[in-house]
Amino acid sequence: MNTFATLLKREFWEHQGGMLWAPLAVGGLMLAVAFASILVGLVLGQGQFTFDIQGARTTLDGLAIPPEIQAGIAASLALATIPLMLPLAAVLAFVLLFYALGSLYDERRDRSLLFWKSMPVSDTTTVLSKLVSMALIAPSITVLVGAAVGSLIPLLAAIAMIGTGTDVLPTLLTTADFYLAPLALLALVPVYALWALPSIAWCMVVSAWARRAPVLWALGMPVLVGILLSWQQAIFDRNIGADWFWEHVVGRLFGGFVPGMWFVFTENRDSLDRILATEGSLLGLVGQSYVTLASPALWIGLIVATGLLVLAIRLRRWREDAA
């Protein structure tokens, strides 16, 4: 266990730029932009804020507003953590894509593989430490940064509203969703890890196999096959499974890095409709996300990912060269 923990620390030290500093930089930029936007809105808008509450636009201009409107504004601010995660989710997808593609290639390229193989650590343990870092630790760090940003921006907005004569800060601080949103995001990390596993495993296999340019091999091979299938289907006017290949192979290999794509991969496509029916409730989001774990698409992907990981371990054991 101590060896595995040390390997996890090694992964963090080597990739803290993508795992920690990238989401921190994006989160800091989001805070700066939000603060500037609020400040400009107060100055140019003469102290007015406009909100969409249950489909109706409400403008705060210093007039007294009913308590139910205040509760609606506070609820909107409390749930702002979810949409505020979108930029960080995009950063996470790109970071993990290139992290996985370089996970087993970089150590062959710089010859550090020979040093690490001299250590009493098995290839299986090393590969699994990289997998855990990508599937669990990196998403958890991103979620923590997103939770902090998603809490600070609504607080800034609520404080700024005091200048309009509307004090929704006490209502916001007593809204349960304001505290549950970060917990809901953390609860989605295991779901993300399971759905992202085939994507990570594929990139790790290519990283362990490619002599050079693993990015081109990982992206090029499935895309080229998809183009050839589509070309054959168009030329001979026969359904040979091109659409299926793009959706279930190419889509799964790379879409798994994007948080929330599990709703697209499942056969039960009305999951998003159910969430919308609950008016965006956190329980609806988390509940429907865990429902996708019963999907055959997930378990087929996990079986494929297991085979790919075994192959990655064997390739790391026998392949030591890279351009």
Task: Explain how this protein is built.
This protein is mainly alpha-helical and 323 residues long. It has 16 helices and two strands. Helix 1 runs antiparallel to helix 4 and helix 7 crosses helix 10. The longest helix is centred in the first third of the chain and has 43 residues. It is globular and about 70 Å long.
Brief overview:
The protein is mainly alpha-helical. The protein has 16 helices and two strands.
Which descriptors would you attach to this protein?
mainly alpha; single chain; globular; two-stranded antiparallel sheet; 323 residues; 16 helices
The unreliable regions are 53-58
Compute the average pLDDT: 84
- Tally of separate domains: 1
Number of helices: 16
Proportion of residues in extended strands? under 5%
Radius of gyration: 23 Å
Spatial sequence of strands, sheet with the most strands: 1-2
Share of helical residues: over 70%
Q: What's the overall geometry?
A: globular
Number of strands: 2
Gap between N and C termini: 34 Å
Q: Could you spell the SSE succession in H and E letters?
A: HEEHHHHHHHHHHHHHHH
Largest sheet: 2 strands, antiparallel
Task: Label the structural class.
Answer: mainly alpha
